[in-house]
Design brief:
The protein has 364 residues and is mainly beta. It has helices at 2-18, 23-28, 339-342, 345-348, and strands at residues 55-60, 69-77, 80-87, 93-103, 106-124, 131-147, 153-167, 175-194, 197-214, 220-239, 242-259, 262-284, 287-303, 308-326, 329-335, 355-363. 25% of the residues are buried.
Length: 364
């Protein structure tokens, strides 16, 4: 009973820090989506939608001037929720649907992602004789997730497939699909050490295959990818207004390109270690300050039939964020630190942007 009370208390504290969360908040805290409790979790663990209902979210991504994603999480009743999201990141994004259901305490969730584009030309008068052509591509992804009743662990299974059309002006196939699929498994486990300190163990594995066949030569080209991510993170909450996070782990990625009758290539990247850390603190009731950093230490080897190329390098990023809270409305900004040195451009004439990304959340 004591452990249950401690676990419940810890998750109340963590949720209080993430009740008005967003993808921007996760990024500015060191890209730590996997060890934070945040509404952005639903993209990895759709069963978490039941923790974040009756909210509307709008995202402005890096270098975009318009909202590139708008969604609403609807509370259908005390035991179920529905999420609908529309994206403008590419011309073939259709819709993302989420559904969550309480099953005897445990939470079940599913995420459906639909992408499609196509174009068809019939009797094109720009060509002599009026030629036809057709092209298009579709992708279908589904993620099924389960969250333990007390929120102590999450697990999800991802499956994706797709197809494409590539027909020339004579009505013949140029290339045709020969196998497109993605399979992934994600999981994390929260281990409560004391009311202020929680360890999060997480792992993920993903395989991806894209193959197509030349309709004239019957040569098949394969692009295969295998990736593995294993890590351990820490959430430290000394008070309900302060949260510090740290994640440590390794990533292994293997990408193979196989060409029938031609030499194959293989790229292996071993990232060890990687570090992610972030801090979120309340300055005023209406203002939060966030900082974050990531560091990936890569060892990459590219192999051909008769030669290989190896490089070792580090990839480091830092982030600074602000959170503004106005009643039911919340704005998260990935801010440009130069703003505080040079000021707004209408004062300093500098070309610095106010920020790289922004999220708007409204709870109702």
């Amino acid at each position: 009973m004591k452990n249950f009370i401690i676990i419940s208390f810890v998750f109340v504290m963590l949720l209080s820090m993430s009740a008005f969360a967003s993808e921007t908040r996760v990024m500015t805290m060191g890209d730590n989506n996997n060890i934070l409790l945040d509404d952005a979790n639903i993209w990895m663990y759709p069963s978490r939608i039941l923790d974040h209902t009756n909210i509307g979210v709008a995202e402005i991504g890096q270098f975009d001037s318009d909202f590139n994603q708008i969604g609403i999480n609807w509370k259908l009743d005390d035991n179920s929720a529905l999420g609908t999201y529309f994206s403008t990141e590419s011309s073939w994004d259709r819709i993302n649907l989420f559904y969550g259901k309480d099953l005897n305490g445990n939470r079940f969730g599913v995420h459906l992602d639909l992408k499609h584009w196509s174009e068809k030309s019939e009797n094109d008068t720009t060509f002599t004789g009026g030629l036809n052509s057709e092209a298009g591509e579709s992708e279908y992804d589904i993620t099924v997730g389960l969250t333990e009743a007390n929120g102590q662990w999450d697990v999800s299974l991802h499956f994706g497939t797709g197809s494409f059309t590539d027909i020339d002006t004579d009505g013949n196939d140029i290339t045709e699909p020969d196998g497109i699929n993605r399979i992934g498994v994600y999981g994390r486990y929260f281990k409560t050490r004391n009311p202020n300190y929680t360890t999060i163990y997480h792992a993920a594995i993903m395989t991806d295959k894209f193959a197509w066949k030349n309709s004239t030569t019957n040569n098949v080209t394969y692009e295969k990818e295998l990736s593995l991510d294993v890590g351990c993170g820490i959430n430290f909450t000394p008070s309900s207004h302060v949260l510090a996070v740290f994640d440590f782990g390794l990533i292994y990625t293997k990408i193979t390109d196989e060409f029938t009758g031609i030499s194959d290539t293989e790229t292996k990247t071993f990232t060890f270690p990687y570090f992610k850390m972030g801090f979120d603190g309340e300055v005023f009731k209406w203002l939060d300050v966030r900082v974050g950093a990531t560091s990936y230490w890569h060892n990459e080897k590219e192999e051909f039939e008769s030669q290989s190329f190896t490089q070792k390098y580090a990839e480091n990023m830092t982030y600074f964020g602000l959170g503004f809270n106005f009643g039911h409305a919340h704005i998260d900004l990935e801010a440009n630190p130069r703003l505080f040195v040079e000021g707004p451009d209408f004062i300093s004439s500098a070309s610095e942007d106010l920020g790289a990304s922004m999220s708007f959340t409204y709870d109702f």
